[in-house]
C-alpha cells in the first residue's frame, strides 16, 4: 500500500512540485492550499506524513502544527515544517515543536531534502536529530527584508495576543482561523475547539444565538465592497460591543475582522442608572403615603427575586404596623400590628446595612408572630431598615423559602433604599401637612363658631333690653346674668388663644408667676366656677382629697386654667344626672390628681391624639358640645411647664380618667 502524504502550502507551485516528485517515488499525495481545509481532512483521513509550509495566510505553519499535535489521532504521524525563512527566524523555527524542519532551498536541493527526511523516518534512524536542526539550511542565504518582515509579524502577533479586546478573524464563509486570548476567554472556548469552525454554528450550539442574522451576508463579505458595522450582543451574563470590518486583499481570499469589547460593567452601570432614574420618577410621582409604599414594594419586586416582600412602618412606640404585602402569604394583611423587638433593634443597631438571616429556625424564632400569619417558614431573610436623618421610619423585609439573596448589586440596592427613605419621609411630611391643614380648617371653623355663639347670644339679649320688651326686673337680671356668662366664656377663649400664642412664641423664656399653690384650693375654685354648668345637667361633684395639703411651686392662674378645662370637658361629655370625681394622693414626692367622669368615653383610636392642637374627639351623631380643640393641648403644655405629666385612660360609654402628676416642693427653673 502506498504511503500517504498530506502537503499544506498556499503556494501552488510548491504544492504541484512536491506532489509530482513524491508520486514519482511511489507515494500518494494530497495537496491542500488552505490550512482550514487541512484541519477538516485530518479528521476524516489518515496520513503517514504531513508537510506544512511555515508562512501561510489565515493559519501559519506554527499554529497549524500546534493544532495537529493536539489531535490524538495524529500522535504517530510526523509533522514536517517547510520553511523559507530558516535563517531569518532560525531561533523561532525550532520552537514550533515539529518533528522535522526543511529549509526551502533551490528546488533540486529542496526536493532531495524532503525525500531524505521521509526516508529517515521510514528507516527509523537518527529520527530525534531531525527535531534539533533545519535540514538544508546551509543551502540558503539570509535576506534582511525578510527578517524585518518577520520581526514586524512577530510584533503584531504579540499585540493581538495581549489586547484586552477580543479579536476573531474569519474567512468569507465565517470559518474562524484566528482568535486571540481575550476572545477565547470572553467566549469560554479553547483554541483547538474553534479554529476552522463556523462562527455561526459555535454561537448557535454554545449560546443558542442565531448570529447569522446579525453579521453581514457571506456573499457580501466575499465581494470587493468595504464595510464596517457595530452592534451589541448579550452572551450569558456578559454584554459585548461587536465591531465587524472587512478584510480585503489582492492576494488572498477576502475575510472579516471581528473585535469584541466587553462592556458588561458599562452596561450594568447604565442599567443601574436607568433603574435608579425610573425608581426615583415612580416614587416622586406620588405623595400619598399608601401609594408611595405600594410603589416602593412594586419597584423592589422587579429588582429582587423574593417570595414575599413586606413593608412595615414604626408607630410611636416600638410597635410596627404592616402597610403592604406582596407574594406568598396566607393571613398577613395591611394594618396588622406586631411588637417585634428584633426588627426595632436592627433598625437602631444597623440602620444603613441590610441584615441577612439564612437559618429557618432563627427566622422562626425572631419573627414568629409574623411567620405564623404568613403561613410558611422562610429559610432566607433580608431585613433592611428605612431611615431618614437618624430616625427609623420603617422596615423592608424580603423573604424566600429556599433561595438566597445574592444575585443583585448591593450598591444599587443601597441607592434604592436611600430613594425610598426620601420618598417615605416626603409622604409622611405630606400627610402631616394635610392633617395640619385639616386641623387649621377645623380650628378656624371652631374658633369662628365659638366667637360667634356668645356674640350672637349677647346681641340677642341686648336687642331685647334695648327694645324694652321685658318690664320686670327679675327677668332683666336673668338676661344680664346670661350675657355676663357668655362674655366670660368669650374672655376665657381669648385667654386660651393668648396663652397658646405666648407658648409658641417664647416657650423657653415664658415667665411663670411663682408662688406656693395649694392644689386643693385650685381644684375647689375650678369647681365653683363650673357649678352652674354642672347644675344645668344635674351633675354632682365629688372630691376625695388626701389628708395632707398638696403644695406645689407654680403659676396659680395657669394651673387653674388647666383644671378648669379638664372639669369643663368632663361636664361636656357626661350625660345628665351623673357625677364627676376628683381624687388626690401623694406618692414619692409627687402629687397625683385624678379627674374621673362617667360619660361617653373616648374611642381607642383617638386617645393618642387628644392632646394634639386643634384635635377634637368625635362625639358621635348626637354631638352638642362646643369647642376649639385647644383645651387639652393647652392643659398638656401647662402641666409640662410645671415639670409634670398628664395621662388619659378611657372606655367607650363608661367614662374617662385624666391623671396629672406634679412635683411637690420643687422650685421651677425659670
Summarize the structure.
The chain is an alpha+beta fold and 670 residues long.
Shape: rod-shaped
Mean pLDDT reading: 83
Alpha-beta classification: alpha+beta
CATH superfamily of the largest domain: GAF domain
Helicity level: 40-55%
End-to-end distance: 122 Å
Number of strands: 24
**Can you list the strand order of the major beta sheet?**
2-1-3-4-5-6
CATH architecture of the largest domain: 2-Layer Sandwich
CATH class of the largest domain: Alpha Beta
- Point out poorly predicted stretches: none
Radius of gyration: 48 Å
Beta-strand percentage? 15-25%
Let me know the largest β-sheet.
6 strands, parallel
Estimate nothing, just give the exact number of structural domains: 4
- According to CATH, the fold-level topology of the largest domain is Beta-Lactamase
Total count of helical runs of at least 4 residues: 21
How does this model look, in words?
By secondary structure, the protein is an alpha+beta fold. The chain has 4 domains: about 5-145, Response regulator (Rossmann fold, 3-Layer(aba) Sandwich); about 165-260, PAS domain (Beta-Lactamase); about 270-435, GAF domain (Beta-Lactamase), CATH 3.30.450; about 510-665, Histidine kinase-like ATPase, C-terminal domain (Heat Shock Protein 90, 2-Layer Sandwich). It is built from 21 helices and 24 strands. It is rod-shaped. The mean pLDDT is about 85.
Amino acid at each position: 500500500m502506498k504511503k500517504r502524504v498530506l502537503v499544506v502550502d498556499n503556494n501552488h507551485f510548491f504544492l504541484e512540485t512536491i506532489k509530482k516528485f513524491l508520486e514519482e517515488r511511489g507515494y500518494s499525495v494530497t495537496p491542500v492550499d488552505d490550512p482550514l481545509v487541512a484541519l477538516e481532512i485530518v479528521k476524516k483521513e489518515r496520513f503517514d506524513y504531513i508537510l506544512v509550509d511555515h508562512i501561510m495566510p489565515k493559519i501559519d505553519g506554527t499554529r497549524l502544527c500546534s493544532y495537529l499535535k493536539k489531535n490524538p489521532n495524529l500522535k504517530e504521524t510526523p509533522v514536517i515544517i517547510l520553511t523559507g525563512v530558516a535563517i531569518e527566524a532560525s531561533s523561532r523555527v525550532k520552537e514550533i515543536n515539529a518533528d522535522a524542519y526543511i529549509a526551502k532551498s533551490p528546488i533540486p536541493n529542496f526536493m532531495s531534502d524532503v525525500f531524505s527526511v521521509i526516508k529517515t523516518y521510514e528507516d527509523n534512524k537518527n529520527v530525534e536529530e531531525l527535531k534539533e536542526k533545519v535540514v538544508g539550511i546551509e543551502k540558503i542565504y539570509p535576506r534582511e527584508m525578510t527578517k524585518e518582515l518577520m520581526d514586524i509579524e512577530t510584533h503584531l502577533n504579540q499585540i493581538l495576543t495581549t489586547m484586552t479586546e477580543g479579536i476573531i478573524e474569519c474567512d468569507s464563509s465565517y470559518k474562524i482561523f484566528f482568535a486571540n486570548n481575550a476572545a477565547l476567554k470572553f467566549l469560554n472556548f479553547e483554541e483547538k475547539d474553534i479554529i476552522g469552525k463556523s462562527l455561526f454554528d459555535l454561537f448557535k450550539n454554545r449560546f443558542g444565538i442565531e448570529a447569522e442574522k446579525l453579521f453581514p451576508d457571506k456573499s457580501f463579505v466575499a465581494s470587493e465592497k468595504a464595510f464596517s458595522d457595530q452592534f451589541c450582543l448579550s452572551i450569558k451574563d456578559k454584554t459585548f460591543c461587536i465591531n465587524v470590518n472587512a478584510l480585503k486583499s489582492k492576494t488572498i481570499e477576502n475575510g472579516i475582522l471581528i473585535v469584541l469589547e466587553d462592556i458588561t460593567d458599562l452596561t450594568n452601570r447604565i442599567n443601574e442608572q436607568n433603574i435608579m432614574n425610573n425608581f426615583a420618577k415612580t416614587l416622586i410621582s406620588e405623595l400619598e403615603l399608601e401609594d408611595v409604599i405600594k410603589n416602593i414594594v412594586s419597584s423592589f419586586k422587579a429588582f429582587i427575586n423574593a417570595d414575599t416582600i413586606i413593608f412595615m412602618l414604626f408607630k410611636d412606640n416600638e410597635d410596627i404596623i404592616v402597610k403592604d404585602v406582596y407574594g406568598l402569604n396566607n393571613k398577613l394583611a395591611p394594618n396588622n400590628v406586631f411588637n417585634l423587638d428584633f426588627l426595632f433593634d436592627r433598625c437602631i443597631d444597623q440602620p444603613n446595612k441590610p441584615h441577612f438571616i439564612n437559618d429557618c429556625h432563627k427566622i422562626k424564632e425572631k419573627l414568629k408572630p409574623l411567620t405564623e400569619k404568613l403561613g410558611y417558614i422562610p429559610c432566607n431573610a433580608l431585613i433592611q431598615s428605612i431611615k431618614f436623618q437618624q430616625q427609623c421610619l420603617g422596615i423592608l423585609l424580603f423573604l424566600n423559602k429556599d433561595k438566597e439573596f445574592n444575585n443583585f448589586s448591593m450598591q444599587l440596592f443601597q441607592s434604592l433604599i436611600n430613594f425610598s427613605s426620601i420618598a417615605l419621609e416626603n409622604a409622611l411630611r405630606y400627610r402631616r401637612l394635610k392633617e395640619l391643614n385639616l386641623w387649621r380648617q377645623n380650628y378656624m371653623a371652631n374658633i369662628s363658631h365659638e366667637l360667634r355663639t356668645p356674640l350672637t347670644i349677647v346681641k340677642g339679649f341686648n336687642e331685647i333690653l334695648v327694645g324694652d320688651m321685658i318690664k320686670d326686673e327679675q327677668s332683666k337680671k336673668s338676661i344680664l346674668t346670661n350675657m355676663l356668662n357668655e362674655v366670660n366664656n368669650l374672655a376665657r377663649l381669648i385667654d386660651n388663644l393668648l396663652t397658646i400664642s405666648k407658648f409658641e412664641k417664647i416657650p423657653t423664656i415664658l415667665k411663670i408667676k411663682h408662688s406656693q399653690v395649694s392644689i386643693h384650693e385650685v381644684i375647689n375654685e375650678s369647681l365653683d366656677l363650673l357649678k352652674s354648668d354642672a347644675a344645668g345637667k344635674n351633675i354632682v361633684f365629688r372630691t376625695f382629697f388626701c389628708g395632707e395639703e398638696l403644695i406645689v411651686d407654680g403659676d396659680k392662674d395657669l394651673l387653674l386654667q388647666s383644671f378648669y378645662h379638664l372639669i369643663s370637658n368632663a361636664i361636656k361629655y357626661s350625660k345628665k344626672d351623673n357625677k364627676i370625681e376628683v381624687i388626690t394622693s401623694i406618692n414619692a414626692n409627687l402629687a397625683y390628681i385624678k379627674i374621673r367622669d362617667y360619660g361617653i368615653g373616648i374611642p381607642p383610636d383617638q386617645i393618642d391624639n387628644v392632646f394634639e392642637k386643634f384635635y377634637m374627639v368625635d362625639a358621635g351623631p348626637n354631638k352638642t358640645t362646643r369647642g376649639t380643640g385647644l383645651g387639652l393641648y393647652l392643659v398638656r403644655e401647662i402641666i409640662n411647664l410645671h415639670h409634670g405629666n398628664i395621662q388619659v385612660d378611657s372606655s367607650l360609654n363608661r367614662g374617662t380618667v385624666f391623671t396629672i402628676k406634679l412635683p411637690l416642693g420643687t422650685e421651677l427653673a425659670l
